[in-house]
Amino acid sequence: MVIAFLPGLLTGLSLIIAIGAQNAFVIRQGLAKSNVLLVVVICAASDALLIFLGTGGLGAVIQSQPRALEIIRWFGVAYLTFFGLNTLRKVFRPGALSIEGETSISRKAAIASVLGFTFLNPHVYLDTVILLGSISNQFHSDRWYFALGAAIGSILWFSALGFGARAASRFMTKLIFWKVLDYIIANVMFAVAIFLIFYDFKA
């Protein structure tokens, strides 16, 4: 059990620590103190779902349907580009703005955004479903302990990211900070979109 659980925990953490679109969004919501628990729960639950599906054999199904990843790829590119442009528009919006109005989004928008960053990124399927799924099956009867470890890694990471950012938000009171943050996040979205365009999923 432990032999499978610990590698799952460490492997899961190693795959999600890189700052991508999903992590950038969690950080922003934490700093904005906006729907933090909701966003963290959705991210962790989505990762856990994909990890367990991969352990159950979904990875083999996805690999046999490469067109599915291509469809997700272009939806993801369009979604990330739209979100990046919308975020960039806020950076250059003229006029006096309150920090609250600049940083908060509705619950519905938060749910739609985090689901989009999770399920419209084909790289998420490669990491959680295919890669973690294939590694977990090397542990045979203990593969579900590996999957549990990886899922707990996601819970720990997203909780630390979201609530850690919320704890640090009291130092981020100037509007210029939020404009700089949104500028960085917009460029993260564009970078991930470009990455998806050129990434070879068959490699």
From TrEMBL:
* InterPro entries recorded: LeuE-type
Give the organism, scientific name: Candidatus Planktophila versatilis
What coarse category fits the chief subcellular location reported for this protein? Answer: membrane
Q: What is the superkingdom listed in this entry's lineage?
A: Bacteria
State the name under which the record lists this protein.
L-lysine exporter family protein LysE/ArgO
Entry keyword set: Cell membrane, Membrane, Transmembrane, Transmembrane helix
Give membrane topology per the record. Multi-pass membrane protein
> Which is an annotated Pfam family here?
LysE
